[in-house]
Each structure stands twice: as C-alpha cells, then as structure tokens.
Design goal:
By secondary structure, the chain is mostly helical. The chain has 21 helices and no strands. Among the domains are: 149 residues, no CATH class; 161 residues, no CATH class.
Length: 515
C-alpha cells in the first residue's frame, strides 16, 4: 500500500486533536454547577442493577447505555411527552444511586439537554406504529446512546476508529475489485464491530450523527435508519467484519495503548520508544485477557444458575408434580449443576498466546505505522466458505452423532423429553458462552494458535453445542425472559416506589424550610 507519509503521523495528529477537544469540553464542564443527588435507595438500587446485569449477561461497555434504555422504556410507556421532556433530573438521580455516575460530576445544564433529546425521540416513538419491528431500535436505542455520549467521552475512540477505518478502506479499495454501493459505510460498520465490539445501537447513533440526521426531521431520519438497517444486515458487511476481525489483533493492542498512554501522540515520534511500549502493552493485554476470562466465567456461572433456578421453579418442578406427582431430583440436580461445572472445565482449556505471537504483533505494528518492517500487516489466509459439500455433510453428521449420543445417555438416566430439552438448552448455552470467552484469546492472536490434543478434543465435543447455543442465544437475546420478569415484577414497582420516597423526602424538606 502506498503511503505519502508514515501513518504514525496521521494517528498522532488525530490523537492530539482529540485531546484538545476533550480539554476544551472538560474546561467547560468544570466551570458549571453540578447535580448533587440526595435520596433514599442507593443500596437497593445498586444491588438490583448487579442482579439485572447478571441476568442480561451484557458487555461492561454497554451497561450504562442499557440502564438508560430501561429508564426510557418505562417512561415512554406512560405516553406523556411532558414527562419525557422533564426526565433529565430523575435519570441522573437514578443513575447516580445505581452507581453508574459519581455524585457531583454531571453539569446541571445536561438536564435540559437530556430532556430535549428525550422529547425529540419520544415524538418519533409515538409517530411510528407500535407494530413497527424497528421502533425501539430507532428511538430507545439511539436515545440511550445519545444520553450516554453526553455523560462519557469517546474522543479517543473516535480518533482510533477513523484511523483504522481509513486504513481498511484503502486496503479494500486495492484488494476488492467489486464496486458495491455504500461500501465505505459497510467498512465503517465492520471496523467498529471487529475492533471495538461496538453494539448496533452505538453504531446507528454514530452514523446518524455522521450524516447529520435529527429525529426532528421525521422523514429523513426514518429513511436513513432504513438504510442503516440494510447495511448492518448485509452479507458484504459481514464479510468485511470477518476479515477485519481476524486481522485485528495489531489494532486492538494499539487501542489499548491509546486508552492507557496519556502522551502516545508524542511517543509515536520515537519508533524505538513506541515499539518497546507496544511490546509491554501486549504482555499487559495478555494479563487483562486472563482476568477477563476469569471474570467472564463467574458472570456466566451466575447467569446460568439464576436462569436455571427460575426455569426449575417455573417449569421443571410444576411439570414433575403434574406428570409424576413427585419431583424427579436427578434430572433437576444435573440440569442445575452440570452447565456451570462444564463452563468451568471449558475455561481450563483456554491458553494465552506465547512469545512468537508477541514478536509477530510488534512486526505488524511496525509495518503499519512506520513501514520499516517486511512483515505484512494483513496476512493472506484461506477464506471461509471455500470447503466443499463433503465437509458440510460430514460436519452435519458429526453434530447429529454428538448430540444423539448425549440424548441417549441422558434418556438412560431417566430424563423425560422436557428434562432433555432443558439440559441441551443449557449445555449449548454454556458451550457458546465458553466459545465467546475463547474469542478473547483469538482476538489477540496475530498467528494461528497451537492446536494441541486437548484443544482438538474440546472442539470435537463442544462445537456442535456451540452451534446450537449461538442460535439459542440469538433468540433468547430478543426476548430474555428472565430480564423481562425482573423488569416487570421487580424493577418497575421498585423504581416507582423509590421515586415516590424521594419525592416525599423533597416535600418534607420543603415543609421544614417553610417553618
């Protein structure tokens, strides 16, 4: 790829501009009066949020966004625009009590900005037919990201994405001969997904901002959303994502440096200094991945246990009493304990990359930023989907063999059809969660990892359940029965009662002032 100048200069300039923008915003923010939250229910609210987040099993970077979305989902059900326009103060209070925001950090002017945005998206929400399948995505999702973007800074992230997007856009222009409409937008979406795991809601909001789309212009806003939907679901976007995702380790380590190094834009000018720091960041990232895997295991075990306990109480036990007039304990206990134990066992097969991977990453970033290494930034690999029908038939038979063997073994232990279905559902979910954790290792691999005997046996046995688990997870994410129960049975009355308590406290305080 031809370069008019080393790319480190472009990256350094982008980071410096981002730092200047952030400094200006911080100066404005520090000069303003802050919102101070005094209210009851902080412990209860924070505890519930921990439970709710465990049930949803969401990435940490979207927890605040999801909490904002749930707030407005409850509020929009009341169908009152005045409440939406005046929601800023209550939202900041709730998020502070839940522990998402530190007290006395949000400028009071943000209250009006949040209310203005909420009112604009409320108008779109009410204008769309309630049966519109993208109604929540176009309104609640985007509103939650817009509000979160007021509360958190994404200046560095934007600079990094623009740098990576420019590189991959140039790369694909030279390697792909097809002329596909909106190819640049597909590359942008794929870059966000692959390198930062940006969720669809944030990508949608960024694209709407990128093309100056406002909910106040209903026609243009909805038309642009339809285009974004088509591009997010396009096969071309998925193809680009797979390429960037598999080649993204170099960029991900670079992003970790951008987050952790305050003077990276200065460091980039010294090649030796930067490469030394980059190598140190690789080792730090390996350690962080190890910790994240352990934390992910704990979250997954809690998620499986909570979900399975609720299903056991709501389905298995009533089924046993109705059909067998007694509780069949063996299937109940196996279904409760095996998936978490299986999850822990899978985690022991995850191995971090070695020295060869570290050296490959350093060579690749040197080639990327300084053009002084003969190591290619993007390796030429066999593309997925090139295997013929014999492999597909063998793989399908293999899935039937493994799943069939599991069903036969459990049936011989006295499992009924319902018990079998629940076991396979949770085994597959645990397999997919374990596979998702293995991606954390794969994401920092610049070379193919070593396939040892244990890894091959693991893949042989659990890949069929990963396929099933992915399908279940995709379907479950759309309904998330446990989350729905928590939202309606616990969150709605809990947050309503706490809000009334705070309002009563404010009333009593006002009465004291009048005396």
């Amino acid at each position: 790829m031809e370069k008019h100048h080393p790319l480190y200069q472009q990256l350094a300039a982008s980071l410096q501009a981002a730092k200047n923008r952030q400094a200006h915003l911080d100066t404005q923010k520090n000069a303003e009066e802050k919102v101070h939250v005094v209210g009851a229910g902080a412990t209860i609210t924070a505890g519930y949020e921990q439970l709710r987040n465990a049930a949803e099993h969401a990435e940490e970077n979207v927890l605040l966004q999801r909490a904002i979305r749930r707030f407005y989902r409850r509020l929009f059900l009341l169908r009152d625009r005045k409440l939406a326009a005046g929601s800023g103060d209550e939202l900041i209070t709730e998020l502070t009590l839940a522990g998402y925001l530190a007290n006395d950090t949000v400028p009071r002017s943000y209250i009006d900005r949040i209310g203005e945005s909420a009112a604009a998206y409320f108008d779109v929400y009410m204008s769309l037919d309630w049966r519109h399948k993208r109604r929540d995505a176009w309104t609640l999702d985007v509103l939650s990201v817009e509000v979160e973007s007021m509360l958190n800074s994404y200046a560095k992230q934007s600079a990094f994405v623009e740098f990576s997007y420019s590189y991959f856009l140039d790369y694909f222009k030279q390697t792909d001969t097809k002329n596909i409409e909106n190819h640049d937008v597909s590359v942008f979406i794929a870059t966000h997904r692959a390198l930062l795991k940006t969720d669809p809601a944030r990508i949608r909001w960024i694209l709407l901002q990128r093309y100056s789309q406002s909910p106040k212009d209903f026609g243009s806003f909805t038309k642009t959303n339809e285009l974004i939907d088509s591009l997010m679901d396009a096969d071309e976007t998925d193809r680009l994502f797979r390429i960037i995702n598999r080649q993204g380790a170099t960029f991900r380590i670079l992003w970790q440096m951008i987050e952790s190094e305050e003077d990276l834009e200065t460091m980039l000018a010294s090649q030796d200094r930067f490469l030394s720091a980059y190598e140190a960041q690789i080792e730090t990232t390996y350690t962080a991945v190890s910790k994240k895997i352990k934390k992910g295991i704990i979250k997954s075990v809690i998620f499986l246990f909570i979900t399975k306990t609720l299903i056991g109480i709501l389905i298995e036990i009533p089924y046993d009493m109705l059909v067998h007039n007694e509780i069949i304990w063996l299937p109940l206990i196996i279904n409760l304990l095996f998936p978490p134990l299986y999850m822990i066992l899978l985690s022991n097969t995850l191995l971090l990359p070695g020295r060869a991977n570290t050296e490959a990453l350093v060579d690749k970033v040197e080639a990327l930023l300084y053009g002084t290494s003969d190591k290619a930034v993007i390796s030429t690999r066999r593309r997925t989907g090139t295997y013929g029908w014999p492999y597909r038939i063998a793989y399908a038979l293999f899935i039937l063999l493994v799943v069939g063997s599991a069903i036969f073994g459990l049936y011989s232990l006295g499992f009924s059809a319902l018990h079998l279905a629940i076991f396979l559902m949770f085994l597959s979910t645990a397999s997919f969660l374990g596979f998702s954790l293995s991606r954390l290792v794969r994401e920092v691999e610049a070379i193919d990892g070593y396939q040892g005997g244990v890894t091959l046996i693991r893949d042989f046995l659990y890949m069929p359940f990963v396929v099933i688990g992915r399908w279940i997870s995709e379907k479950y994410a759309k309904i998330n029965l446990v989350a729905q129960i928590l939202d309606m049975v616990i969150e709605l009355p809990l947050k309503t009662i706490l809000r009334l308590v705070r309002q009563w406290g404010a009333f009593m305080s006002d009465q004291k002032d009048r005396l």
